[in-house]
Write a structure and sequence with these properties.
Mean pLDDT: 85
Distance between the termini: 31 Å
Strand order of the largest sheet: 1-2
Low-confidence stretches: 1-5
Strand content: under 5%
Structural class: mainly alpha
Helix content: 40-55%
Shape: globular
Largest sheet: 2 strands, antiparallel
């Protein structure tokens, strides 16, 4: 049986924050422990979402969310900071007003207005690991 591994990361984001191209940095996956041995939030792993969404959607994550979510919810006053290579910093730096963040919360409470399948919604609100029940799938 092949052992699975998770991306090694620092406890703080200082090293990641210092990178000009944070996505390229985390793509050089430094490997650590087998999943299920311990739980650890990883900014490095969350930064991979910038590349994953870009590849899957054919557009940058902030452009994708603008079209698919923010515009539909009436969220206009927002911005997502990018690294020097133009990648959205998916582990941080998404800025919006408190009122617009409340729109996202209301959208979730109302059942996402058909924009997300109910089974996906259930998955998003379920603990991602038995090692930390407070953490869902980056939600």
């Amino acid at each position: 049986m092949e052992a699975k591994v998770r991306i090694a990361h620092a406890e703080r984001a200082d090293v990641l924050n210092a990178q000009k191209d944070r996505l390229a940095y985390v793509r050089q996956a430094r490997l650590a422990k087998t999943p299920g041995e311990e739980w650890s939030y990883s900014n490095d792993a969350i930064m991979l979402l910038s590349g994953i969404v870009a590849r899957a959607a054919g557009t940058q994550i902030d452009d994708y969310l603008k079209e698919k979510l923010f515009d539909r919810l009436g969220i206009k006053d927002w911005r997502w900071e990018h690294d020097d290579a133009g990648n959205a910093i998916t582990y941080a730096q998404l800025r919006m007003t408190a009122r617009d963040l409340a729109r996202v919360g209301q959208w979730m409470l109302e059942g996402t207005k058909g924009m997300i399948k109910p089974e996906t919604m259930k998955l998003l609100s379920t603990a991602a690991t038995p090692l930390d029940h407070a953490q869902g799938l980056v939600w």
